[in-house]
Design goal:
The protein is α/β, with parallel strands linked by helices. The strands form 2 sheets. Strands 1, 2, 3, 6, 7, 8, 9, 10, 11 and 12 form a 10-stranded mixed β-sheet that branches. Strands 4-5 form a two-stranded antiparallel ribbon. Helix 15 packs antiparallel against helix 16. The protein is globular and about 70 Å long. The termini are far apart. The N terminus is likely disordered.
């Protein structure tokens, strides 16, 4: 099987470095850049001394060479410490100048008025080189708050060997393709897999916490639910959303998914898939390539793993995590403008943007130049038509997602019906959204 040249992100437990000092104590020609661990090395993990800060340190060195009076400090923030560190930094006026991360986790800062729009530093050629779906993911209201650098599309993964053994060859796509199934196809696939091998769970599903919950949100869109209406309110308790959750409950009742989904987290299910204990699981570009690399290294027993879209009644459902940069406006005008210029520099520099191949490039020009190393690029590009802005860049999104998984648990344990659970989720979530919209400084 061909292997995509992404590097698996595994180091989310890195030790954090000391926090930066106050804005007043730092010269206005010195900025702080924070990132969560993404990939090792500037362009490759095989580089000498490769680490998670390599790319931005390389960018900083190149920028400082052109601007000798500028100092750029790069700091890695462990992913599981990001929220707490950012909370303290917000309260103590020590926010960084730039944060490089998955953009959906930073959108709340735009609503709080802490991020500066980047429309004035994004050139027209970049606008054309990056798809409209990506720009939609990084925009709130009339402004662009993040400069997109790379993306990490989310799909399902399936064990094609198990499909073949069950006589499901017609549902297997090519090695470099993303299979598309209807909901009826999906049900037939899962029931046939169970009949063929009762020792393997057909589907891996989890809802113990909010980790990996984007896939659950895609499942809940299977019958056409939009999740948010045009006003930004949750509408998941409409008929189409209830049908989707009823369907998931049916899969649980018929033992077509791994038992005890209410006690499983995404890491559990990912491990079960790699150990060939489930036939269909969740995946994204980084996870999938990491698994293929583990097969090559002999740490995971090899099998024929392929990709599929989340099924849909009318059409499949897809999403992508966008990795990019946001600039805070809390450290003075000069530092803000310097930060924006630095973000523009590494987001548009023809040499540095090649590093986006560590994920999947957002730029068509970069992807075209690396097509031989990106066999799934055409498939992901074709999937753009199905990509939804899963968070809607809604204010209070972290609270909204935290309100969902307890309701999924309640359905999976039989404590609530799908309608009851989604009614409560929508009621709770819309209160959060209403409050957030009322206070939002990004949407006036």
């Amino acid at each position: 099987m061909k292997k995509v040249t992404f590097v698996l992100l595994t180091g989310l437990t890195l030790l954090g470095l000391a926090g930066c000092g106050s804005a007043d104590a730092k010269a206005q020609n010195e900025i702080d850049v924070w990132l969560t661990p993404q990939w090792k090395g500037t362009y490759s993990a095989e580089e000498k001394g490769a680490d998670y800060d390599s790319f931005l340190k390389t960018a900083a060195e190149m920028y400082e060479e052109e601007h000798p009076n500028v100092k750029i400090n790069v700091q890695v923030i462990p992913g599981d410490e990001r929220d707490s560190k950012m909370s303290v930094a917000t309260q103590t006026n020590t926010l960084p100048d730039v944060f490089f991360d998955s953009t959906f986790v930073l959108s709340s800062y735009a609503h709080q008025g802490l991020l500066d729009p980047l429309d004035d530093v994004i050139d027209s050629s970049s606008k054309k080189d990056i798809s409209g779906q990506i720009w939609e993911n990084v925009s709130i209201g009339e402004h662009t708050y993040f400069y997109p650098f790379a993306q990490n599309p989310g799909t399902l993964a399936y064990n094609a060997d198990m499909f073949k053994a069950a006589g499901l060859d017609e549902y297997i796509a090519g090695e470099d393709e993303i299979a598309t199934w209807s909901v009826d196809d999906f049900y037939k696939i899962l029931t046939t897999l169970k009949e063929a091998n009762a020792k393997v769970a057909p589907l891996g599903f989890f809802c113990k916490n909010n980790q990996g919950d984007t896939w659950n949100m895609m499942y809940l869109r299977m019958f056409g639910n939009q999740f948010f209406d045009e006003a930004g309110d949750l509408v998941l308790n409409e008929k189409s959303g209830v049908e989707a959750l009823d369907f998931l409950e049916q899969l649980k009742d018929e033992k077509l998914m791994a038992s005890g989904p209410e006690s499983l987290v995404s890491n559990d299910v990912n491990a079960m898939f790699q150990n060939q204990q489930v036939a269909v699981s969740f995946s994204n570009a980084m996870l999938f390539n990491g698994m293929l690399s583990s097969m090559d290294a002999g740490t995971v027993a090899p099998f024929d793993a392929r990709l599929a879209n989340v099924p849909g009644k009318e059409q499949p459902v897809s999403f992508t995590y966008v990795l990019g940069s946001g600039v805070f406006n809390t450290n003075g005008e000069k530092r803000k403008e310097l930060a924006k210029d630095f973000v523009k520099f590494y987001s548009e520099n023809q040499e540095l943007i090649q590093a986006s191949t560590n994920f999947l490039p957002v730029r068509t020009s970069v992807a075209d130049a690396h097509k031989a190393d990106l066999p799934f690029w055409d498939a992901y590009l074709a999937n753009d038509q199905y990509v939804v802005n899963f968070s809607n860049n809604t204010p209070g999104y972290a609270e909204v997602r935290n309100a969902l998984y307890p309701e999924l648990q309640a359905v999976m344990t039989g404590e609530k019906s799908s309608q009851e659970a989604l009614d409560n989720f929508v009621k709770t979530g819309n209160k959060v959204i209403e409050k957030g919209l009322r206070r939002s400084k990004a949407i006036q």
